[in-house]
């Protein structure tokens, strides 16, 4: 089967550091931190007081009052980001066959806030009195479904639910779907809105979240003093397009997607393999898929969660795949700015990776202070810097042992 080339022609994002992809990327370049005190609810009775919330998002202004009322927050983020990606690409379904345009959009948790609210309503009024919109607004796949409805895309519509790897799986699966000839255009990415008492409590009880109250020392990937991740929220959506289709309509191109790898640790429900071998295999698979040697890669947007096991294991994985070249490339974590957006993380980080290639800029790992000997690669500490990079990886590693890695190439006509 012919392997067709796939390019990124549109970007959309809603993040803790910006309400669009452009705003979010400028904030990354400026080293802005989106972490602060939780405002979605009163966290006084809980140990974790910080999160990376989306600020100033007005769904009624973006989507209309009636429409936004019938969507969970995670779906609102997704539809807003998808509309931005379509507008940014200058694309509408009338420019292609609707049956050749699809959606793959992840959410790890879906409408958690809706579940919590409706559970309280059921306890108070009886469970037969919960909202008739509860199920169709809370289920994880509804963001993908609503994006497809809004865009009029009638090809494959799917929702990978692979925890923190979901956004990367969505982009990678969409890339292969176009490359292998099943579609010309795909909206893909991830969305999440899980800053709720139960979600924060659940992650706290398993000791995954940091309990510091200092935003500057909360999400500190690769730092020896890291103590857990910070919950983030938002969405990232990319418009992927078959190259000749994009060229025919004169689309601008951000970057080319050239490789994708996905594996499973098959080891533990939450902990990664200590040697990072599952993640290493995903990276190696992405390189093989793209026909690229390790020495050609100049940058990795790391999963980099700010947990001890993840950051050390990911560093070990990079050393396994890249050997001595691991010390020549740069590997930073933009979660130091956005927090961990769970199912949206991989998609937003794919956007940042594409823009890194376009602009020749390496994002920083901000608030970095203390070297960990187990994380001794170039993490681009504290300040981003220019760099001429041709290939870059974006990694995601999720609960359940899910590993995903995307290989992107600087656009060269």
Describe the structure.
The protein is α/β, with parallel strands linked by helices and 413 residues long. The protein has a single domain, classed as 3-Layer(aba) Sandwich (Peroxisomal Thiolase, Chain A, domain 1). It is 35% helix and 19% strand. The chain is built from 14 helices and 14 strands. The chain has helices at residues 21-30, 59-63, 65-69, 73-89, 112-125, 134-138, 142-151, 166-179, 197-205, 243-248, 277-290, 308-322, 335-338, 345-359; strands at residues 6-14, 36-37, 50-51, 101-106, 157-158, 185-192, 234-242, 255-264, 297-301, 330-332, 361-362, 385-386, 391-398, 402-410. The strands form three sheets. It has a ten-stranded mixed beta sheet, sandwiched between helices. The chain has a two-stranded antiparallel ribbon with strand order 2-3. It has a two-stranded antiparallel sheet with strand order 11-12. Helix 4 (73-89) packs parallel to helix 7 and helix 8 (166-179) packs across helix 14 (345-359). It is globular. It starts with 5 loop residues before the first strand and ends with a strand. The mean pLDDT is 97.
